[in-house]
Amino acid sequence: MFPALETEVKQESLPDPYEDFMYHHLQYYGYFKGHRGSLPTSATHQHVWKNNPRYLLSGSFGERQGMVPDPLQKEKLLWPTCISSPVHRQIEAVSRDSLMLSSPLLKSRQLLHDEFGEVSPCLREPRDLFTFFSSSGPLQAPRWPIECEVIKENLHHIEWVPPQPEYFYQPTGNEKLPEIVGEEKGTVVFQLDSVPTGGSYFTSSRVGGKRGIIKELAVTLQGPEDKTLLFESRFESGNLQKAVRVDTYEYELTLRTDLYTNKHTQWFYFRVQNTRKDATYRFTIVNLLKPKSLYTIGMKPLMYSQLDAKTHNIGWRREGNEIRYYKNNRDDGQQAFYCLTWTIQFPHDQDTCFFAHFYPYTYTDLQCYLLSVANNPVQSRFCKLRTLCRSLAGNTVYLLTITNPSRTPQEAAAKKAVVLSARVHPGESNGSWIMKGFLDFILSNSPDAQLLRDIFVFKVVPMLNPDGVIVGNYRCSLAGRDLNRHYKTILKESFPCIWYTRNMIKRLLEEREVLLYCDFHGHSRKNNIFLYGCNNNDRKYWLHERVFPLMLSKNAPDKFSFHSCNFKVQKCKEGTGRVVMWRMGILNSYTMESTFGGSTLGNKRDTHFTTEDLKSLGYHVCDTLLDFCDPDRTKFMQCLTELKELLQQEIHKKFNELGQDMDLEGSWSDICLSDIESSTSGSDSSLSDGLPVHLLNVADELNQKKKMYKKKKKKLLQTRKQRNEQYQKNNWMQELKLTEDALSRLHGRDKGTSLDPSKMPSLILTKNKERMQV
Ligand SMILES: [Zn+2]
């Protein structure tokens, strides 16, 4: 199936007044006799992607399938369970009728004319999603790569908050380390077919994924006594690749890597059926890749029992015993894998249960939420829902604009903007829960929410990487790359979601000040919630980027840790949303990291976070925005003073660590903020892998040619290490200058304190020497 056409066929089922009008018009004049499906299609980005000569160099995209619409396509449109199709047909009919009445005025899709058709035509407002379905509408069914098998069942989990805090697991010291035996000694009870790994790349997508009847992957039970668990993961965000039964109640599990890569296993989400109540089961995931994990410090996996949900209204909960995270001892010299093992007792016989790394939040969950907003007569007045772009697979990336209507143009122009986004990393569903909390609050009728909508324009991209979320990736898009390393990209067709986001923010910045940019993530090594920001270069605003995080820590002291925040701009993070937006001029530009585990703070100490905790952070962001913008600057100034004191303490600590006295001979110009901070590596760190996988062949060819050409005028290139060192040095120099100035203002050059800037050149020499040796 030609992907562009599939998209078009799908879109056609939404009655577009202009196309309907043209369709009838052409038919009337006899220019067009075919059925709607054969209308010529406009170019979508996939169309462009697939046929652009730039991408045909490798010869791999040469095949062009017949442009025949898929006859099954319409059947595959999913209708939201809340809306019956007769209701939808009525609405469609009403839309068409109203179109007929207004059609004499329609002259173009974009230009609006007044009643007489001539005077001062102006551009139409961008069209809202669901405009024609003001009270309901079809959800866009998720599009999958055509290799992916997808089961037809719709999964739904209830939202629930455990009445008691869920404490971290306390190791007893007697946890078993199961030896991995593999399929040679066990029985494969579940295995995905044809999984695209490294070396292949995304070609086209389809609603419902792979064509035809999907294989029954689970084993067939031999009767009621057969205790084999039946596994499944071929649903949205699921990612189990293989299950091997190695003992009656013991299973070894392999996770699917991110599509078109052979990396990034971390997120997991799968289903088991045919459970027994009075047995202890053991699961061991055998192909994790991170050396460190929150599972080593008390995090428990999540379990969901369908019977408990139905009968007791109980949802996802932390379960598991004998939890261990450990390195798999392989002596074959290949890549090291890490294992997560846990035991579990199921609450019921013959139950359907799910396991997950974190509370799932799928693309369909988001669409249901957005549909409820669009259908809410109050919320839809101040929340406009639009398509930012389509992902590689053709899924809609939504953009929400939330603001109260302004009374005057001056009032509208004076509003500052706030940009929030989530799920660039699809396996970090934490982001969606914080986003949901934010949206719940900002769309509410609370006076604070109303005030915020009065003074701000909120631009929200709730799911930056829908394809990744749908297929159950942990980190990448279907380009096989971490999008949060590509915010500087010029490859619009390969990285549409972030290209359009950056472009939207660029235009927003031309129009108004963007006070805050925050991208919501999950963190796999540290507990609590914290922010990564960017040390700013402007002396006038020294430490200002830390005020918002400090205020947030005061508003959410049980969850948010200012101590874990970091403001270092590392070279490997240059392509992240946070750094790119900061370089575009947004001073308060952040990555919000929220743990997969829980809190180590205050009343919530040693307990896991619930979805309610994460949602509350969305509210705290709003609350903190009000503090941050309070016309009475007392809170702001107080925080600034506190930050300066904190920094001073940090500097003292560093001096002590270095074993040097504070009254060294020298100058302040040799201390930098980056030296005081550790690096931010963790779940927010992965190196850019470069070009999207489908362009690698093309790039190789070009590079070969370039090399041939350049051979004669080859000059000495610096090694990567040298370049990094040079970069670090430049960074230090910049920050040193800043610190010198700011600290001298803070303490006064003439006070003769031990922090006198003119007294310490040798310190940094020592430090730099140390660093060079590392
Ligand atoms: Zn992340």
Automatic annotation (TrEMBL):
* Protein name, entry field: Cytosolic carboxypeptidase 2
Tell me the cofactors it needs: Zn(2+)
PANTHER family (alphabetical): CYTOSOLIC CARBOXYPEPTIDASE, CYTOSOLIC CARBOXYPEPTIDASE 2
Source organism per entry reads Panthera pardus
Please tell me where this protein is predominantly located: cytoplasm
PROSITE patterns registered for this protein in UniProt? PEPTIDASE_M14 (PS52035)
What CDD domains does UniProt report for this protein, alphabetically?
M14_AGBL2-3_like
Q: Which UniProt keywords apply?
A: Carboxypeptidase, Cell projection, Coiled coil, Cytoplasm, Cytoskeleton, Hydrolase, Metal-binding, Metalloprotease, Protease, Zinc
From the UniProt record, list the coiled-coil ranges: 699-730
One GO MF term attached to the UniProt entry: zinc ion binding
Q: Give the taxonomic lineage as stored in the record.
A: Eukaryota, Metazoa, Chordata, Craniata, Vertebrata
